[in-house]
Structure formats: C-alpha cells, structure tokens
Queue: 2 jobs
Job 1
Amino acid sequence: MLDEKIKSIHSEFKKEISGADNQKIIDEIRIKYLSRNGLVSVLFEELKSAPKEEKPLLGKRLNELRNSVTLMFEEAKEKVDASEKFSEHKIDLSLNGIARSIGSKHVLTQTLDEIKNIFKGMGFSVALGPELESDYYNFEALNFPHDHPARDMQDTYFINDNFLLRTHTTPVQVRIMEKQEPPVRAIMPGRVYRNEAVSARSYCMFHQVDGIYVDTNVNFAELKATLVSFAKQFYGSELKYRFRPSFFPFTEPSAEMDITCFLCHGSGCKICKGSGWLEILGCGMVDPNVFKSVNYDSEKYTGYAFGMGIERIGLLKYGIDDIRIYFENDLRFLKQF
Amino acid sequence: MKVSLNWLKKYVNLDGIPVSEIIHTLTMSGLEVEEVIDQNEIFKNFVVGFVKEKTKHTNADKLSVCKVSNGTDELQVICGAPNVDAGQKIVFAQIGAVVPNGNFKITKAKIRGTESFGMICSESELEISDNHDGIMVLPADVKEGTPISEALELNDVILEIAITPNRPDALSHFGVARDLSALFQRELKLPEINFEESSEPIEKFAAVEILDEVNCPRYSSKVVVNITVKESPAWLKKAVQKIGMRPINNIVDATNFVMFETGQPLHAFDLNMLNGNKIVVKSTKEESQFTTLDSKIRKLPLNTLLICDAEKPVAVAGVMGGENSEVTTETKNILIESAFFNPSSIRKTAKALGLSTDASYRFERTTNAGGTVYAAERAAQLIAELGGGKVAKGTLDVYPKIIEMPVVTLRFARVEKLLGYFIQPEKIKNIVTSLGFEITDENENEIVVKVPLFRPDVEREVDVIEEVARINGYDNIPTIASFSVPLGVKNDDSSFYDKVRDTAVGLGFFEMINNPLQNEKIAALTGSQIGVLNPQSLDMAFLRTSLIPGALMVASKNFNVGEKNLALFEIGNTFNKKSEGNLIKEFSDFTEDTKLLFLLSGKASLKEWYSDEKNISFYNLKGFINSFITNLALDNVLNDSYYHSEDRIFNLVFTKEHNGSVIGKGGRIKKEVLKQFDIQQEVFCFEFDMKVLEKLSTSKTKYIPLLKYPKMMRDFAFIFDDDVEYNDVASFIKKKGGSLLKSVRLFDLFESESLGSGKKSMAFELEYYDENRTLTDEEVEKDFTNLITLVSGEFKAKLRGN
Ligand SMILES: [Zn+2]
C-alpha cells in the first residue's frame, strides 16, 4: 500500500517538476509535496500505522523519496532562478518605476524651519505661547496704553474687553521674561491674527517670528550685526541692507530693516514699489517700560528685540502673488514645495 | 501725510540739496517717504499755447480746428470746447504729454478726417480743479512756449510721508521742516506773527469757560470781525489742494492751511450764532444727538467732550463742528478755536462716532499744548488779510494748569552703552538743540534738557537717545564682527512638532495650514465654540474647536478641483470654552490645545501596470496611525479600542488611549457630516492631542541587544466561525503559546464557499526564539502542537491543510 503510494508520488512529482519553468509553479510544487502538510510529510504520518515488520524498509524508502524529491526540487528551482536571471534583458527598463509616495511640509513651515535653524545656530532658544491671549500680554505689558493710537497699528480681533487673538508673537517675550532672569535669548515663532479684510495682499492671520536678547551688555550694534548675519544667511551673502528709524511701542530706539530688492537689485520695480528696497523686519532696543512690567532693572539690563512675517518672505521668494493660497491647502499647491 | 517741498522751503533753506537727497534723508531719519509726486514730471510737455486761428471742422458741428503756436511751431489742433477762441492763451498738451485725468498719452490723431497734433486742456483734465466747463484760458501776458509748470506754478514736489503714531509733530510742515533743519544743519525760520489789532478788546465780543479741565486743559481763541467770506486767492487754493484738501472758502482754507502748517487743528465759529457770545467746554452727562457740519445726525455717548455756547452744543470737541455755528457766506464775525484736548478723550469720541477727521487724528496723537496761541494768532492774521476783517485786541486763553515741559537727564555714557558706539558730546548737544530741546544744565558727563511740548513722545532718557541716534543716522551705528552667546540650557519648544511633521511627511502626508476662524455651525460641530466680538464676516466669526471641520472644508475644495486622493495632516491650536455659556474672564475659563490631525480619502493605490486600484479603508487609517505611533516609540505605551457605534462625527471609531484616557480618536466620517461639507466620497480622520503625545514621548527609547540565536518559524491556518475576531485569536495565541513564542502575525484571511457558509480562514505565522540559546526542533514542535489543540478547543476551529 504505502509502497505503491511512494512510487506513484515519486513519478507524479517527476512529471510535475519537469514542467516547472517559473517561480510560481515551483512554489506550488513546494507546498504540494514538501510543506508541513504536503504529500511527503503525510506519508511519514502513515508510516506510524504500518505493520511493525515493514517499518524499517518503508522508512528507508520514504527517506529515499524525500531525499530524491528534495534534490530534484532544488535542481529545478536553481534552473528557474538561472533562467529568470538570464532573461533579464526582457525587462522593459523604460517602464515607470514603482513609486512610493512621500508628503511634504507646508511651505510656511519650511521657511520657518530655515529661520529657526539660523537663529538656533546663533544660540537662540525656541519658545511658544498661546494664540488666544490677554490684553495685558498682547498690549499693556508691551507698552501699548489703553486708548492710544499705537493700538491702531494692529487691527485686533477681540474676544471681549480682556481677551483677544494675539496680533503678534511679542507677548511670548513677556511670558519668558516673567519666568526667567537674564540672560534671555530666544525666538518665538507662531501664528498671529489681524482684523483685516481678506484680499490678495492681506489675510486675517499670518505667521511671525519674534526674537529677544536681554543681558547686561546688549546694544544696538550687536542687534545690527545679528540681523545682518541672519539676513545674509537667509537671503544670500551679497545683499545690501539698511536700518531706518521706526516706531514700535515695545522698543526704543526702533528700526526697520530693508534689504536690496532681489528682483530688481535696487533699481526699482513693482514689488519694491520703485524704491529698490524691501522691508524685511522690525526691531529695536527693548523699551524700559517692558522691563518694568517684568521686573527687570532697566539700568542693569539692556536688550534687543525683532520680529518678522513669514508669509511675506514666501511671496517674495517664490513669486506667490496671492496670500490666500497659503491657506487654501489645494493639493496642487502643497505638492509644489 | 502729504507735504509740499515748496512749502517746507519757506521754513528751512534747502538750497543746493537735490530732491533725491532730501527724500532719502527723511526716510533714513524715520519720516518714511512712501510716494513722490513731482509736478515737473507730471506737466512735462505741457506749455502755454496761443490760438492764432479758429475755424469750424468741416465734418463736425461741435469741433473746431485751431492753429496753435507753442512759441516755435504752429500746429493744427482739433478742439471740442465751445469756449475756445482765436487770441486766447491756453494750456497746450503737446505730443508725448500724459493727461493727468485719465492718464492717457497725447499722440498724433485724425479726428473726423482732420489731423490733430495735441490737445487744449481744461482745468479738470489737468486735475487742478473740478472745473470742466470748457478749456482753461490763461492771462494774456504769459508767453507762449512757457512750461505750464512754470506758468501755473505747478513746479512743486509733493511727498507722501508715513508718520508713525509717536510723531504727531511731524503731521505738520513745521515738524518736517524742523527735522530737515536738524538733519542738514540749516536754520529753522518759523513765520513771525505780525498784524494790527483793533482797539476793541476780545472780551467785548466773547468769553470762554472750561467746565471739564481734565479733557480740555487749554482753550485759546481769537476773534476777527467784519470779515467777508469768499473764495480763497489762488495761492491758498493751490496750497490746500497740494496737500489733498478741497478749497472751500477763505476762512475754512485759512484754518486748514494753519493746521497743516503748525499741526494745530483749528475751528472757526460764526460768532453771531453763538448764544450769549460764549464758549463753554463740557462733557455730556447723558446720551444725546447732535448735527455735525456734514449735516449728519450723530449719537453722542456719555462723557463726550462738547464745545457749547450759553445754551447748546456747537461742536464735538476735537472731532467736528456743528451745522448750527458753521461759517457761511453770511458770516461777519468769527471766533477761532485753538485748543488742547485730552488725547484719549478725543480718541474715544472719534471711535464712538466712527468719525476720523484731520483734527481728531492730530488731537488723539497729542497736539502741542504750548502752541495754541501762536496758531490762533497765525490764523487770525491770515483771515484778516484774506477777508478784510479786523482782529479784536488780545487772546482769550483759558489755561487753568500750566503743563510743564519734561526735564530729562542724558548721560553720554548711556548713549554709548545703548547704541554701541561713541558720539561726541558736542554733536549730541547740537542735535538736541536743533530739534528744539533746551539744554538747561550740563557737565562733562551729561546734559539736562527741557523737552518742548510738541514732542510728546520724548519723556525719558532713552527717548532722547533715540533722537540722537535717528538724526546722527542709523547707518553710523557700527556692526560688530562677533558676539558672545550666553551658555546655559537651550530649549526648543517646537522640536517635538518638527519630529511629528517629519514622520507624517515620511508616511506620505502633506501638511496644511488652515484658518482657525470659521462659522458658528461648523465650529459647534466638534466642541464648545468661542466667538470674536468684531468679525469681518459670519464665516469667520468663531474659533475652531477641532481640526476636523477645517480639514473637511479643505477636502471638499480639493474634490471640487479634481484632487480626489488626499493624505493631509495639520498641527494647530483649537479653542474650547470650559463650560457652555460661561464668560471668558480668566485663562482657566477656556482651553487652547494643540492638535494633530490626519485626513485620508480616495485611493490607497491607483491602477498602474504593476498594481490594482484600491480604495482607502478603515485599515489604511489604522495602519498609518500605528506606523506613526511606532515611529514615535509609543506603540507599547498606548492601547487601542474600537467600536462600531456612532458618535457625532464618526461611525467606525478607533481610539488611542493611555491609562484609560483617550489621547487620539478617529475613524470614518459619518455621511450626514460629509453632506454638510458637500462631500460624496468616504473620508477618514484621526486627531491627536499633541501636548499629551509630547509628554508621553519624552520617555527614553531603550536599546534592545540584537538576537544572537536563530529564530524558528511555524505557521498554521484554522477555519473559524466568521464572528470570531482576529484580536481575540491573536491575544489567545500570544497568551497560550508558551514562553518561546515571541510574535504572532496574521498573514492570510479569506472566506470562500469551500470553507462553508459563516466560516472564515485565518492563517498565522509564529516566531519562536530564545535570547540566550538555540532552540531545538522538538521543544518548538511540542509547544506548537499543543497550541494547535488549544486554539481548536477555544474557538471550535478546524486546522486546515490535511
Ligand atoms: Zn524691486
């Protein structure tokens, strides 16, 4: 009985293996004959119930069967492997590759990352703060008195008399200084809100990076040097720059930094409104009134602060002509960066 | 603010300084010149022409054919104005001229078959008045060929300067001239008051009383009698036009002129309309109504500062005069108001009325309390000259409490400490005095200065340092070659967010940034929404309570433009009231959370030559979330739970939990929700609380030594009833499989007729190993065989394969 089976399986296997010319058939044969529940294994199970006197011989035959089948299988498999290798010239190399999709960070995040890295390289920490902010942190502590026209500089979304959507990330300066004695050296990126009609040029929110450095010997010359270094790392080492006096309630003296327009290189164009200059940031020496609100001694400590918008940089750098496109999140836009 | 260069030159000699240098220097001193209007440029190619001959156009009744001389040539010009005539001197726009009104260029043209070489202009075409009744006829004595800029004195340069809120003094020609005088070290010459007063004292005509001294610290006035209200002379009309105002009459134009000259807003009352010939300054004690001179009825809130006569209000102080006391052509006698009001009072009133005027704009920025009398006298002089009246003797100047000039000590060493470079004390002294500051005391280390009241922004030493830095030029502040960085712990609060972004990007997701302001219905979908008081529109009136609705809006927009396959993520803040209906008084009354959202929709794989099309399913979402969690090394920290039951947003729900609290939740968005966003295809979302994720992820990853011994693999397949869940089987196998079994993986799952109805097959691969030794076949076989029996028994499952 078992003997017969051994013979028939052997011949059946020989027939099948001779026709095996690809990996798929090879795999099927392996499963059929050589797997855990394959035909060969089953015979070994049956051996257990064979008459005692026949067992040694049948066992030997079975082992021979297994060895022979395994050997033939390996030979056939090698042949198939080799032939497939040999037929490599049949692969159409011009077919599209099998792609793996990868996403991307929003262009504003990428810009912010670049700015962050430059300032981290210059020894700045990175701090965050809330967007729903109190009037105190957003205005009062930053030397914007109530009923002062300086408040008109930043159109504000109010939640009520005491709470608002922050109009700048500058309140985080106050929050850091409240918690920490000088030296303080940090940048504060984040989202800010302005109550302006939405148009191609303005949106109800944008992103800002503020910075501050307070210590015993910080001066305007160092502020200039730091920001010039930043601008050259970010915009290119060839740029020309200038600092103009300006006004921010939380700095005194205050300045705005312009760089040469990188579209017209200073000769004047539409982007720079003919001036040849592009304003890139506001800055100044921290106003003593801000130090007063965080209990720093303004005789002992001096500091500088600066702030810049992120969206504007992209408008200039990538030629984006409508600020709203940043926040529409059209996949066709997102995929470009 | 518009500033005329010719006007400035009356107060400071700018001879020999090119206009471009003036502009640059102003900008670099903080008075940023935003726009330059050069009339010489505008009126290039416009000359005085002489009409030698006029004949009718043969093909058009209303057109004339003129021979015009430009001084050198005679040109044929077609003109449509009825008042054109031979012998007139006219404004001739030659070929190449650009007509200001309409901004079109004159070219050679053929009109009804006749050639025309230029244009004869009207005043409105030149934009020098609204008059478009025919062409402008010039005096006969101007020579043909003279440039129009010269003939009409349109040779000014108008500068549009952006004045920052700290510089109310620069909202006047005096102020700008003062800066120029300091910047170029040229003398400032302000006009001297010089007029004849009548013998009748002002007290005979009027009286002034201040009842609210807090909001009106000073009220000065002059009276001019027997004036004639009429059109202003050409020079005055031109002057007010240059700075963007419309000429009205000699009185109004004169007060405006003085306001733009000195920065002091003035108001002229018709004295005969003032009951009791009296001015009373007081605040309203109740809400009331008042008609301003623009004929609008205004609602006045409580505590509005008013100018009244003996009986009634006649002006909203500092904002706008009343119709009832306005100067008209009938006016004979006027009272000129030149006051100093409390800036915040004027600002409140202007805001309440929604009315910003040139006057209120200056008052709310603080005007010069020391300059009221000068301005009143200056206006009186001008009005008397223009209107032929007589100035009453003396000034009514009610000034109950003299405002002292701030006294500030400036230490030279402090200048150097703050700016980082040394400026010679002589230079510092020169700068402050040229700005009108008075040095009252000095020694080798410091000076003491008295700050004039027209500079309300200067109160402290640091403010004076800014003035010094500004006038000396920021360009002169050096940059340093290196700086020291304080050591100490450097934190990056955003580093975890960066890591999360990198992981999401690696998983194929695109980052979006959404507007957190949305409409109430959308915001209310996912939480307890907080509104803004003053939204731009109802669609942007509430803060998002979750990132899901914003993401669904984005998905909808993308589907509409044909982008049907989306893998998006966002990190952003959400805002929720702690309890419904409560007011926000403290930070503790609301939560601001940072959330992370994933959105998936469309195809998981596209039909390609190597793959079949597959829709994104719940399992794609789950797989991505688990890969994400594994990348953050949180796979052993978080537990999953699932339920089919619906909630507000999802109907297949999947959560990530830590110690029993949900830190992330997602699933398939319900159809009813999708409908609100006009979405037809399935969408899957998952939202995490970033703060909690960040906290959990700070636990350090531990290194596990690599396995030195071989693994042994076994596999089996069972037929189960189809209500048996994978996770129950896998957990059972893990639990009962023995200590050598290290992992279980489902590698096949199917239902088919051959299995019988209500049955399914699950095939598992099992991994056995020991960290310390090589396993033997026998011991693995023993555990494996035992496990087969246990699984069959527990789940009434049948082993497949025989
Ligand atoms: Zn440019």
Job 2
Amino acid sequence: MEFLRPATWAEALAAKAEHPDALPIAGGTDVMVELNFDVKRPPFLLDLTRVTELADWAPDGGMLRVGAGVTYSRLISELGDQLPGLAMASRTVGSPQIRNRGTVGGNLGSASPAGDAHPPLLADSEAGAVVEAHSVRGTRFIPISEFYVGVKRSALEPDELIAAYWLRPAAGPQQFSKIGTRNAMVISVTAFAIALHPASRRVGTGFGSAAPTPRRATEAEQFLSDELTASGRWESRAELDPAAVAQFGELVAAAASPIDDVRGTASYRRHALSVMAKRTLVWSWSDFRNARPAPNSRRTA
Amino acid sequence: MNTPMTPSPARSDQRLDAPITGRGWSVRDSGRGSHPDTSQPIARTAGGGSRGPDDVDNTVTRTGLVKATSTRMDQSSHSGKVGESPLRPDGTLKVTGEFAYSSDMWLADMLWGATLRSPHPYACIRSVDLTEAVKLPGVYAVLTHEDVPGENLYGLEHADQPVLAVDVVRYQGEAVAIVAADHPETARRAVEKIVVDYEVLEPLVDPEVAAFGDMADDVPRLHPDGNKGGGPEGQGGGKNIVRHLPIRKGNPEATADVVVHGEYEVGMQDQAFLGPESGLAVPAEDGGVDLYIATQWLHVDQKQLCRVLGMPAAKVRLTLAGVGGAFGAREDLSMQAHACLLALHTGKPVKMSYSREESFFGHVHRHPAKMRYEHGANRDGKLVYVKAQIILDGGAYASSTPAVVANAATLGVGPYKVNNVAIDGYGVYTNNPPCGAMRGFGAVQAAFGYESQMDKLADALGMDPVELRIRNAMAEGISMPTGQVVDSAAPVAELLRRVAAMPLPPEPQQDSYDLRQLPGGVSNTTHGEGVRRGVGIAIGIKNVCFSEGFDDYSTAKVRLEVIGGESVAMVHTAAAEVGQGLVTVQAQIARTELGVERVTIHPIDTQIGSGGSTSASRQTYVTGGAVKAACEKVRGRVLKLAAERLGRPAAALRLDGDKVVSDADGVMAALVDVLHEDVVEETVKWRHRPTHPLDPETGQGNAHVQYAFAAHRAVVDVDVDLGLIRVVQLDCAQDVGKAMNPDAVVGQIHGGSAQGLGLAVMEEIQVTDGKVRNPSFTDYLIPTILDMPPMTVDVLELADPHAPYGLRGVGEPPTISSTPAIVAAIRAATGKDLTRVPVQPHHII
Ligand SMILES: Cc1cc2nc3c(=O)[nH]c(=O)nc-3n(C[C@H](O)[C@H](O)[C@H](O)COP(=O)(O)OP(=O)(O)OC[C@H]3O[C@@H](n4cnc5c(N)ncnc54)[C@H](O)[C@@H]3O)c2cc1C
C-alpha cells in the first residue's frame, strides 16, 4: 500500500486522476477501521489532510460553502448557530476523539445509510444540500438527494474528490434526533432530521439507517408543507393540529424501508421514526412560535 | 540474548534494555498515594463525595464479635498497610499509556503466529491442503493437529477440546491450523491460502433440544466419546449434557397459598476485557519453552501445555505478561499452546496477538440461560418452596460448565431461607460459541431468575418487594438448599435495608430539561416526553473460592533482608494480577505483618508453586492468606533472632516502622541491625478450609467455602415511547468482611455494577444458527461513562472468622444484583414483564 501525500488540491486531483483506485483519507475514522478489519486493501492511500483549503468554510452568495475537511468539533463550535441541525447531528457522532478527527466529507465519502450528517444535509432548504465534487476534468454540483445511490455507494466518479458542500444558513428551526442503544458513542439504529423553511413555506426532512440509503420523506414533507400553508399557520403560528402531527409521523415511517439487523428490528425502526418525526416537529414548531422571525427570513404577510 | 523486551513507552519503535522478567512491581512509594483524609469513611459516591460522618459509626454486634461497618484508617501507622488505600504500583503507567501489556512484547528475531479458524459452527473436515500456504515466502511453519507432539486435547475441568481440530469442528471460530511467519501480515495471508474442505453439518443450537432432545432422532451427539460431566450418563434424557445437578431439600409435595411461575432468559455476555489475547513463546536451549502470557492462572495453563507438548513442567515455564483485564475469559487456553507449538517447531520466538474481532472467537463467554421458576409462598410472604429448572448453554466444549452449573443450582433460590427446594441445573453441549467463566458465573444467571420471581411474588401478594425479601432473608445459622449451614455473617436483611434507605435522586424537572440527564442523552430523542421513572431493588449471593472438594491453595514465598542499608521484603507468588489489585494487597499484607515500608513484588511466574486461579473472588482470600502465613513465619524467625540479640523474649517484641519494638520499652533496634547479613525466607502453601462434593442425586453437601452478598437499588428513567433507558442512579451495599484496600473495594463495586448494567440493557453476543453476528465493539456495546450513573456505595465489614483478616471476596457480588435491580426498575417504569436480558428497546414499546 502506497501513501500519497499531496500538498495542494491540484496535486490531490492529479493523483486521484492517475490512481482512481486510491482511497482518500481525511480524518481516517472510517478508513482506519476498514483497514484494521481487513475490509479494504487499497493499493494507494491518498491523504487529504495537508490540503488546507479543504478545512475552510465561508459564506458565499447567501449560502455557506463548507470544506469537506471541516471536523465535527469545528462544525459544532464555529457553525452551530448557522447550521443547528448539522451541529446537533455532529454532537451525536462518536466520542470527542472521533469528533476531533471525523469530517462530513468523510461521512459523505462513506455514504453509509447510518452516517449522521446525511439527514440534516437532506433536510436543508428546498432540495437539500449540494455536494461540490472536483476532478481534473472539472467541477460538478451534485444535489444531495442524487448523491446517495446505494448502500455505501455515492454518485462520485472514480477520479472525483469532494471539495465542499453547500448549505443555506438556517432560516428557521431545525432538529435532529437519533436512536442508539446506549447513551453515547453509538451507531444510529435510526435517525431523523427536520428543518422548517418559513420563507419558502417548506418543511425539509431526512432520515438514516432505515433504508439502503439516507432518504427524504418527501410525501411527509409535502403533506406538512401543504397543511401548514393551507391552514395559514406559517402566518398565524398557531398550535399544530394533533391529527396533522400524527399523520406526519405516519408518513415519515411509511417512507422508510428498514430491515432487521443486529442493531434493531425493522418494525422498531419504523415506530421510532414516527415518534422522532412527531417530537421533532413539535419542538421545531414550538421554536418557530416562540422565536422572532430569523433575520434573513422573509415574512410575507 | 533471548529475553523479551518491552518497547519504550516514549518511542514504541525502540527497544528498551529492561527485560520483562525484571519488571517486578516495586511498591515502595505506593504509600504516597494513600488517601489523604484518613478519617474518611469508605462509603462514598462515585463522584468522590463522602457520605458524611453519620455513616461512619454503624457498629454491628454479633456473637462476641464487634465490627465497624466503615473503616477508620489507622493514622499512626506507616502508609500502605492493610485497611489503607495505597495507589496501585502500575496505576500511573496504565493511565498514561506506558504500561507494557502482553501485546507490547517484542524480540529481535521473533515470528508472528496466526490462526485459521472454522467459518462453520459444525462441519466435518474432509481434508486440509497446506501447499500454497507453505510456499509463501516468509512462512516458517504451518501446523495442524498432526504436529501436536503430546495429547491434542485441553480443557479446564475436562480435556475435551482439541488444540487444533482433527476431523470435525464444533463451533464457528474453532482453530484448525496455525502459521508462523516473519511478519503478521504474511502469517495472515498464509492462513488465507490454507484450503479446508468442509462437509457442513446442521448445527445443534437449541440448548433445550441439546438437553432433552431424542437421540434416536436427528439430534447429533456432539461428543460421542461420552458424558464428561460426571453426572449419571444420559440423565435427563439427552446425551449432550455436560452436567446435571439436582438439588433436593424438604418436601417435594409442599403446597402454598400463592404461587408464581416465570420463564427467564439471559443472553450471552462477553467479558470485553482490555488487551486481547496475546503472548510470546521463546524456545529454550534445554529444549523447553518460556511463555510470557496474559492469563488468569499460570499453573493450570502449564499443566495443560505439558500434556499438549509432551513435556515435564520443568521445561514449560510461564511468566505473567501485562494483563489488561480478564473477568474469566483468560481461564481457558487461547493462543498459549499454539504459540508454544510454533516456537518449538521453528526454534524461534513466536508472538501471537489476537485482534479484537478474533478475540470474540478466541475466548469463552458467559453462559446464556433459560430458566423456569415456580415460587410458592404463604399469605404472610414466607416462602414455602422454590422449584426451578436452569439450562445453561455451554456451547461446543465443557470449559467451566460443570462449576457454572453448580453455582446456578446451589445458589438458585438466592439469599433466602427456603425449606423445600427442587432445582435442576443443566449444562449442555451445543454448536454455539463455548461458554465458561465470567464474573459471577452461574450466580448471575440465577439471580435474574429468582429476583424477578421475588418481585412477581411481591406483586401477587400486594407486598412491598423489599419487605418480602427481608421476611425471607437468610441469615447466619440457616441451612442452605444444599444443607450447608452458614457459619459466618449473612447480613441480607441489613444490606436490603441500607440500599432501600439511601437518598433518592431528585425527580426529573418538569419545566426544563438537560439532554444529558434524559434517556438518549445528546442524541436528542426526548425533552421529557414519554419519560417514566422506576425504582428497583435486588440482592444476590455468590460463593467465594473454589468449591466441591477442590484442593484450592496458593503458594507464597516471602523474604526479608537488608538491601542498600534498608530492610526490604520480597513477595513471590504465581497468582495472576489481572487488574484487580492483588499486587497492591500483597504489599499491604507484607507491610502490616513485617512492619517494613519497602516491599518488592517478584515477577509472577511458575518458578514458585501454584497461586490458584484469579477467579471466584478468591485471590485476596487465598493468596492473601498465603502471603500472610509466610510473613508470619518470617516474622517469627526474625523476632527469634531479635530475642537472641536483644536478650528479650520474642513474645514481648513486634515489628513496626522498620524497627523491633517492645510494648514496654518502645524501639529496641532497627530491623537492619537485627538482620545484618541474614536473609530470612519462608515459603508457605496455604489452603482455606476444605469443602466437600455434592451428592449427585440430592445436591446435598458442604460445597462452598464462603458466601458473599451485595444489594443494589436502581433508579431508571425510561422513554416508554422509544424504549430507551437511562440508569439515573445505581446504589450498592455490600459486606466485604474487611476492606483490605477501601479504594480498590469501591472500585470493584463500581466496575462490577457497570458490568451488571451492561448485561441489563445492552451487552449481548448475538448468535444466529451458531454464528456470531456482532464480533466487534461497533455492535457489541458496553456501557460508556455516560451510561454509568453516580453510585452511593455502602461497605459493611462483618468479619468472617474463618478468613484471613476476616475478609470476604469482593469482585463478583456487585455484578450479580445490579442486573436484576435495573430490570426491576425498568419494569416499575413500564409495567412490562421483561423476562429477558439484555432488555432491548423493542421489548419495551
Ligand atoms: C468509534 C467511532 C465512532 C463513530 N461514530 C459515528 C457516529 O456516531 N455517527 C457517524 O455518522 N459516524 C460515526 N463513525 C464513523 C466516522 O467517524 C464518520 O463516518 C466520519 O464522518 C468519517 O469522517 P473521516 O474524516 O474520518 O473520514 P475517513 O475515514 O478519512 O474517510 C471516510 C470515507 O470517505 C472518503 N473520503 C474522505 N474524504 C473524502 C473527500 N474529500 N473526497 C472523496 N472521498 C473522501 C474516504 O476515502 C473513505 O471512503 C464512527 C467511527 C468510529 C471509529
């Protein structure tokens, strides 16, 4: 196994073009486990940690562009206000040691259905986050809902690397909730994220570990967005209709296609998703009702 | 030079010059770490807060003996004596990552061993082709059962397990062939190149079928060469029974006003010790082998290795290497024989070191249990009878199964007085992973059964569960279901009262929340919705030391001499230090008995007689007893010397502060001046009082040495909509006879309670069709610090007059009652029956 250590992004892309079978390594918190377990024996490891621009983030045209190499710890401390859903998810990842090394770029690279960054990325704004992939051939912007193509498979081409992902700073309440059978350091049995987008009168969702890929519950989103709009609640900020909350929970559960495995049963996952969907909706709505409009949220009366 | 080196702590790629054989535990400075506040009682919370002066003076009086329930440290004496808490000699090294574990050993020209394991739970081996493996450059040896010079069998109680499989494999992970190569990766690749032609068979995985299935049908007999358990052949029906132990007492026809039935299951728990199996075997010039090994009992390893290698004990020498932890999993051989075979075959040192995943296949686990209980009681709550059937799945080989069955059956009613008992304990062979020793074995499984029953009975009677237990609590003088009369303290009612009276945590707040205080923690699953609180209490009983007539002893050599102008005691035993703190206690005993400050612990090896197993909560009792006895002999000789030199009767003299002291005249002489050039050395082989076998038909007999008790109260919050649990508080009261090292005692109680918590709510090796589904810490979950709540620990010291210093084994009891207490609390919160541990979220919703 050869260890490639590009100093610049251009070198990294060139190396990946030359060796499409090179395995990128960022925090290494997935890669090292796979090497130790002998799951992967790549001919080349491509170390991205010397490429400093991967660890940058910046606002850009009303969006946030976050480098693939920004760690969970930094997401929590530096972006917790602007990306509360992703920060909440980050807080549930592993242990402090893992959060100090692990990155969302790596979570995307692994594309595991259990990755905790995925649900909030899916719930972000109308179509979710966007992944910016680079290769020597150029740049691709991949909508997040097209990024996950199968169990641990993403839309990345063999010569591509993830440079960054784009999200909208939160313009409404966001929540993330994750089931694990211990109270810390646990891979999700299932997880759920919700984001309210009052400006566009939309609700975004994402869930993990309950289908071959991370998924949005699109019907549930549509139902709730319509319901809130039709009942004038975006303006009135009135209490939610309990029947609508229940319906939302059921639709989220229905969007899942979970399996039985060592971490839990399919029926438990479905049930848990509906409970988390209902609870996180109630919490977000209560935040929305109690909050002044966020500064950049347009209020159309 | 053929002495293994440990890597430098600072630079692990460099060699240090200190051979591991020179790594004695020097405990000279350990006194500095003794508790600064010597008046502090040992009852304290995990957070370190004292429970306050009110708890210090609970003095309990019994027939002529007065004991304080909490230790007041002796302020006048030197630091680090019995009853104080000197720091572990290896504590700082371990915390800073500098301690050399067995896997850190290294020799310049060593080879690496690797093991080919069966992927099938049950299969015949048609052929094994080594050709491609042998061809691989860097490979020095590829061995199968044909290369075993001695007997190809081992086992703790019955040698029924092949060192390397012959024509059949009986569990997934069974060793088939071994390889030595100049690089661990080469060894692994060579293993992959071995071709085994298996004829896969249908595994026998249901322990009830194994026990009672009809042999005429298609139930295979896994060990056709016979019933190894000593019980009558075929008793109970099946031929896969390792041991059937019936316990019969009183009237089998007894009837009662109120009867409760229950069926309970315990899943397969793993010991999850630190430091997977590893060791280094070094061939010696005399044709023998030196094995540096992390184990629990050097001499039982040695005995088995001698048989396998066909060598006398003098040629198979073992030295304990750094052990991370054990909890029973290191009682059986793992890589010991394999490494020795490879070393002797190649003439080179061979190191073997399992990965964590391999470790899950490389050691025995806790027996899963299926238990049926029937309890009958009068309206006043007094138990009339208990009937039970306890089936323990021993997996493919016997290991400790007979002893596990004995514990489960003899302790099967719990710490209660019951006149009519009918219990049948069974240990069976299946094609599941082999099960053997784990902290509290047999007693842990039974306690989940009988304590669940006591709660069910309390419910049926409309009685408070603590009150019901107290009404039936056993006490000193009662006769056990085995007919053995309990002849030392059995403060069962007192322990229950104590945990019941401990302050409860504040109720959860209604208007605000802290995620870390809620089930699910920062995973943000509830802000209080669906959360119900429950409280549960349980108590357990454990036998201490080896039982049933086993010749259970330990050997200690103690030497007193002058080194560099100071009087120094050296203690040498073969008793394994596996993290429990025996090395600290041995030094404390030597300081106490010999009045010296400097004590050196000799490396632990087979150059001295057996120390017995580091299990059954026995080492402080038995090896402690041996060290004490050896010290007393040394002291006798030194005082005789002193008497001659000082012209005083020896009886008027004692040793204290490195001086010879007379009560009448104070300091008489420095110890160094009395000793001069003399080296006073004594070796003692020490036994606890004998035990006796159980009658195979009735289970009657004085089989146990000592009984130990702990009670727990658990407070849990359960999210009843999601089935998530947070243990809010876990309190324990335990009688330890004498707290030899109060900090270590409390540490054992914390750790044991945590292990019981794990079994209650998360720890299980999931086995389907004989295959392990979660052999890694990714999915075999053990409690983290965020799962383990604060504890109030109350330690009683009711001396056992038969034991050294009055002590009672400490290590196992806290593991036993913690599980049923937590499950009782979850039942209280949810109203669910919960008859299986670990409790999973989907059991609750
Ligand atoms: C103890 C432990 C606990 C964990 N707990 C959690 C948890 O609670 N939740 C969770 O979601 N995960 C968890 N993980 C998994 C892991 O930490 C996360 O998936 C993390 O996000 C991986 O990030 P990394 O930077 O370490 O990735 P790496 O391991 O470096 O890489 C992961 C994958 O992404 C690829 N990759 C990395 N960077 C790029 C890039 N820029 N472009 C293209 N491909 C790239 C790699 O080739 C590899 O395939 C845990 C892991 C451990 C060891």
